[in-house]
Amino acid sequence: MDKYTVLIAEDDKAIRESIAIYLRNSGYNTLFAEDGEEAVKVFNENKVDLILMDLMMPKLSGEDAILKLREDSYIPIIILSAKSEDFDKVIGLNIGADDYITKPFNPLELVARVNSAIRRFYNYQASSKAQEGIIQIGDIKLNSLEKNVSINDQVIKLTSIEYKILELLMKNPNRVFSIEEIYEIVWDEPAIEAKTVTVHIRRIREKIEIDPKKPRYLKVAWGLGYKFVDPYKKS
Q: Crossing angle, helix 107-130 and helix 13-25, to 10 degrees?
């Protein structure tokens, strides 16, 4: 089986090389980028399975690089940043990152996050190919085989995490899932950072709801969690 390849986009050479040592010792191939522009170029010219993206880089920031990459790709992106404020984490998740780890970080934790993100992404792809079928609720259609979601036959762009959350809720309409349940099922790990679920839910609403502040499909059950409902079906 081929090794997975991780692109390390980081302007600090010492940090790049340190991360590469741990990843290679864990069986990964590595590629490097010193700035956001190079990260996009290296990604477009190579098969990359996951990106570790620093935010504060020259030429093109990590944020702008993520936005550019998300125009065409859903592969896992983990942000590396010295910014540790919740506001900065929210921004990172809002622009399409799947996870966020702050500097200085424990190299073993970083490798564990990489393992988890790649396992989620490729396990999901394998299961999707094995499950034919379409789920339609109201105007929203989820195609499990093609791994896409459309509204009135117009495909919308979702990250892999957003898709998996929506798939979970649409496969279980009207069932309330707590944020801890959603995290453990989608991330396939204990609910340590469960609050990030609410950020992803907000992003999904912005993409599927006419008015995200008055959602018709993705409803909150106050104090309990979230559920997906058919607004055209009387309860």
A: 60
